[in-house]
Automatic annotation (TrEMBL):
UniProt name for this protein: ABC transporter
Topological category with respect to the lipid bilayer: Multi-pass membrane protein
Keyword hit for Transmembrane helix: yes
Parts of the chain that traverse the membrane: 12-30, 36-57, 69-86, 92-113, 120-137, 157-177, 211-229, 249-274, 286-303
Subcellular localization, as worded in the UniProt entry: Cell membrane
Keywords: Cell membrane, Membrane, Transmembrane, Transmembrane helix
Alphabetical list of CDD domains matching this protein: TM_PBP1_LivM_like
Chief localization: membrane
Example of a GO cellular component annotation carried by this entry: plasma membrane
Annotated source species: Caldinitratiruptor microaerophilus
Source lineage: Bacteria, Bacillati, Bacillota, Clostridia, Eubacteriales
Taxonomy, superkingdom: Bacteria
GO molecular function: branched-chain amino acid transmembrane transporter activity
Amino acid sequence: MGTVSERTRSVLVAVVLVAIYVALTTLRQAGAIDEYWSQVMDLSLIITISAVGLSLIYGFTGQFSLGHAAFYGIGAYVAGYVTKTLGGSLPLYVLALAAGAAFAAAVAFLIGLPILRLRSDYLGIATLGFGIIVKVVMDNTDKFLPAMGGPRGMLGIPQVTTFGWIYWAAVATIVLARNLVHSSPGRAAIAVREDEIAADIMGIDTTRYKTLMFVLGAGLAGLAGGLYAHRYPFLHPTSFDFLKSLDVLLIVVLGGLGSLTGTVVTAIGWVFLLEWLRNVLPQDFLDWRGVIYALVLIVLMILRPQGLLGGRELVLVPRREPAKGGSSHAAA
């Protein structure tokens, strides 16, 4: 089958996405996918949104961040606080998601201005420190906002996130990221990743594009946190610590730096792998899950140091290539 026009390709992709949504929704409603695996599926898509955010920051812009879970947690706590105090109606739920994403993005902008002047390991250490600060603040929120629970965790958040919200939010996130990467700002960010000094010499405002990607990536993490807060009944500061940042970082690296589809596939596979190990390992060996997937990581890094897809992308439908020799009358 030959390649197709961009418009036809977009329609076909939309049809496939709707078909997948209808199929999964039908299976869930029929009980073929039980509540446990439904929760795992939802979590995998939420993690995908957060991981795509980090992919913009690190995979495409080359800014090494070890504090991504902090933005995830900020979005969760802010969104959860809005609906817990004001109510869980649809307008307030949408407001809560927007508030969580916006607050995470605003914090990223404020801290990004000074720390994005750092590079490589120094930037990683700075973002790690930021993540620790956020964790400490979460542990002490009950002292100024008792509803947030502090070290006891946050309960009472309306559980209004549905599979539809999560699925289409993930789709929108991937589409947004894809379009951004192929835009002028995206190409500028990639130039920064490849050689920041050369990009600066060429007249690219490196600070501007690093900050842009950092803010957008944090906003996506905040959105993921808001969805998480309204899908799972308990928030605790330990859910957003350094280890969670490391998980998302590993997903981006394993998927392949600069590959959105690699990040998506790895995020979903990662969550399902951990839960599968929880089910197949005897109770006495559950603590060995960490060892097992650490070994998997080591093997993958030895066999595929560039990650699952490297910098390549998977496509559902190939694009139409211009005809050689100047003629562009390709069949759709």
